[in-house]
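Archive entry: two folds, one per protein. Generate the first.
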Amino acid sequence: MKLINERITKLIERKYTIDINIVNQCKRIIFSKQFKSVKNKEGYHILFKSNNKYLFSKLAAVKMFDFYSTNSGEIVSLHQIVAYLFKGYKAFKNGYTIDKNIHVHHIDSNTSNNTPGNLVYVSSQEHLLITQATTMCCDHIKVFNGDCCPFNCKGEEVNNFFHRLTHLVKATLERTLKSFGCNFKIKSHKIFKSIPHYLGFKRFNWCPDFVHDVVVSIQQKMWQDICPSLSLTF
């Protein structure tokens, strides 16, 4: 199998056996919150070995610090633990290790939401692209004051501006990406949803959740083009 970037991800010849019982023990510790962590200014929960010796011994037993090849085994983020226990250990069993150029991305941009379905491994370049796109979109939504065209294509009065905006944004994204050869349909018709205060929304408490659908679709397209033999799963 040809690697996309050997500097970022390396395939080692040897495959490892992981004790799934210990993996499940770690999951129980995490989801019962039997650990001590510190929340930093970015909202990430950080765990120290000195305060979580039992958990760290179990994580070492399932080779987590071998998978995160640049981690010293003394400090680790909660999202890194969750990502490994649900996804990363499977990659490690197949011979993969990662370095600092592979990140764990929070799909909903909420760094406190460390549920397994909200985490995915991405390259640093992918992470930058996703973050820039999400930030730009949110910045525009923040300043939007509801000033919309008062009539539709039939010349009739528009009563539900956000419903109209939803379909316009959806159609624009689909058709624009189609022009680049990325054919897909955005599954979610609900573009605006409630978001945490950390995004800084003041006047309107809405945020586009189509960002998630677009990112997932683009990631799938990118990976299929680069490595057709792989099926991307989160």
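Generate the second and append.
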Amino acid sequence: MIKNSDDNFLLFPIIFVIGSIFLAVSILTFIDHNDRLDVLEQSRETSSIEVRLENPEFLLCGPKDGLMDALLYYNIPNPDIVWCQAFLETGNFLSERCIIDNNLFGLYNTKLKRYMQFDHWSTSIKAYKTFFSDKWNPDENYYEYLERIKYAKNDPNYISKLKEIHKQFFEIK
């Protein structure tokens, strides 16, 4: 409780300073918010915004039924060949590595010396994209790229197997 007028004299400048700071922050926040809205509006006018479903339908499917949609969703180049890789690596999506570890591509962690495990099979597509697809040069034949990087260095027939699977599933008979 304030008992004398000298205390009241000190209280007024403190309240005034606090009020001024609050007003300044409010004005700056309003200006900053409006600047952000202006930038957002300019961005909308000058660029396209890509909208993606938060939960695409392929997440509800198994890899056999949802893989091609997922490859297209994640913009994986040569999705038909990559689909063939998953088919080959997982033995028609029936291997333990596919079913339990959600690893569609035989991705291996060389530091831990074990195959990678994923919470969902679609996450292995993201890993594949990071490790392989993003490093591919579009001027290069994808089969040659896989050979050059020694994708399946332990299987000298890997590319011919992929081509055979591709012929079976993707080429008109």
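Annotation attached to the second fold: Residues 24-49 have pLDDT under 50 and may be disordered. Residues 57-170 form a domain with the Lysozyme fold (CATH 1.10.530.10).
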